[in-house]
Design goal:
This protein has 264 residues and is an alpha/beta fold. The protein has one domain (12-196, 231-252): Rossmann fold (3-Layer(aba) Sandwich). It has ten helices and seven strands. Helix 2 crosses helix 9 (232-239). The longest helix is centred in the middle third of the chain and has 30 residues, at 111-140. The N and C termini lie far apart (38 Å).
């Protein structure tokens, strides 16, 4: 029998692992998945931030736990997947969100900083996806992987924004998403990407203040930056059976900025 919309979006009985889940966009997506009924495992590097985030989620009636891990390090990344499976018994939904940026002109950009950004934003996504897929999704023949890219991966930047490693990494995430979706569709795994525009997160606040929030909002057709609700809908669509026939796709959540910039 055809399910109702409410049934298609229901995540009761599902388990989600969210990296970079202790604040900002990661925590917003955790709320979305938890509010739909999923059990959550959050991860980031700092235990204090994770404790606060899990307390916030639990106060909202969400089943949430945490593991501290640095997803730029292979051993930490593999431990995160294995410990989550040991403690939760499943990883039905993986949100690859942990990320880093670095601001410097391309001609002066330190190679060590380039490697730091790439190791977390691209290599970490690959290692964790591989570990989770081999440990749960492929044997179960089902799974949802959501990769957080960025509109920075769709275009170049204005001259005042010098983040070549970040932009390159997010372009790579889109390519990774499409290639992985093509390979793992036969295992019943969907792989999709979200490309957020500007949200006032801790990582983006300095740049927003530097460029001017009003100026940045005015550059978007909707005339605003992203808020604490704007990623919830797409996250739930990708994670639930409502999106079971969507894979290898990316969607910009940016108030229309990428339309103005002419993203393909």
């Amino acid at each position: 029998m055809t399910r109702t919309v409410q049934q298609l979006f229901d995540l009761k009985g599902k388990t989600a692992l969210i990296t970079g889940g202790s604040r900002g966009l990661g925590l917003q997506m955790a709320h979305a998945l938890g509010e739909a009924g999923a059990r959550l495992m959050l991860s980031s590097r700092k235990a204090d931030d994770l404790e606060q985030a899990v307390a916030e989620l639990q106060a909202a009636g969400i089943d949430a736990r945490w593991i501290a891990a640095d997803c730029s390090r292979e051993e930490d990344t593999r431990r995160l997947a294995d410990e989550t499976l040991e403690r939760m018994g499943a990883i039905d939904i993986l949100v690859n969100n942990a990320g880093a940026s670095w601001g410097a002109p391309a001609e002066e950009h330190p190679v060590a900083a380039w490697d730091k950004v790439m190791n977390l934003n691209v290599r970490g996504y690959f290692i964790l996806s591989q570990q989770v897929a081999n440990g749960w999704m492929i044997p179960q023949r089902r799974g949802r992987i959501i990769n957080i890219a960025s509109i920075a991966g769709l275009n170049g930047n204005p001259p005042e924004m010098k983040t070549i490693a970040y932009n390159t990494s997010k372009t790579a995430v889109i390519g990774f998403t499409r290639a992985l979706a093509a390979e793992w569709g036969r295992h019943g795994i969907t792989v999709n990407a979200i490309c957020p525009g500007f949200f006032r997160t801790r990582m983006a606040s300095g740049l927003i203040d530097q460029l001017g929030e009003g100026k940045m909002a005015a550059a978007a057709p909707l005339g605003r930056l992203g808020d604490a609700e704007d990623l919830k809908g797409i996250t739930l669509l990708y994670a639930s059976d409502a999106g079971k026939h969507i894979t290898g796709q990316w969607l910009a959540i940016d108030g229309g900025v990428s339309v103005v910039l002419g993203a393909a």
